[in-house]
Structure formats: C-alpha cells, structure tokens
Amino acid sequence: MDRTLVIAKPDAVARRLVGEILSRLERKGLWIVAAELRTIDRETARAHYAEHEGKPFYDDLLAFITRSPALLVVVEGPGDTWKVVRNLMGSTNPAEAAPGTIRGDLGVELTENLVHGSDGPEAAAREVALFFPALA
After folding, report:
1. What is the pTM assigned to this prediction?
2. Least C-beta-crowded within 10 Å: which of 71, 88, 121, 134?
C-alpha cells in the first residue's frame, strides 16, 4: 500500500467542504488512515513549503495556510496514490480545473484552492513524516 498527504486547507474548512473532500477520496477507493484538524504553526508551514521560499507568493502562502484550522489527512491506496489524489484535486487554478475534480467543482480562486496533495512519492514520504511522524 502507498500513502500520501492531503490537506483540506483553511478555506475548505471555513467553507465546510471537508466532508465533501473526504467523501470524494473514499468514493475513489482510498482509505483515510490518519486525520487531524489543526492550525499549522509557522515553523511547520515553512518546512512544508520550503521549495517556495524566495518566490513572490511565499509570504502570502504562509499567512494563508497558518491563518486558521486545516484538516491534515494521510490517505492510503494502491501504488501511486499521490497521482490518484492529484487527479481528484484537479488543476491548481480552479478556473482551469476540469469539472468533476475538487477544484473544478468547488474552487473559486487560485490563491485559495481548497486542497493540497503531495506531488510525488518523495514529497509524500516527507510530508507524512512532517505532519504525522508516528506514521513515518
């Protein structure tokens, strides 16, 4: 079995879309093996988004992800689970995301696009370890 991290971001929690997002993951056949509602602290957010440090949107990204609670979820499924999740999420920009995807159906703006999913197996392992060290 393969694991990946999904974050229902603060906008998803505020808009009460967490149940819909989890339901889509489960209907696809993925298993939720850990979940925690928490406000991500700035230090953890910096570690999580380290590859974006120095980019023009970095400070806004940190402010957004740390502003209020997010639901952190470890999802398990067959090989390349991260790809399955990324396809369910849809394109980063909700205006370009396909209908039937989370962002295509529910997203409104690029900077608040509801969900994060690991973008590869290495990122999945690193992110699961960062947010759920007991599962690493």
Report:
1. 0.96
2. 134
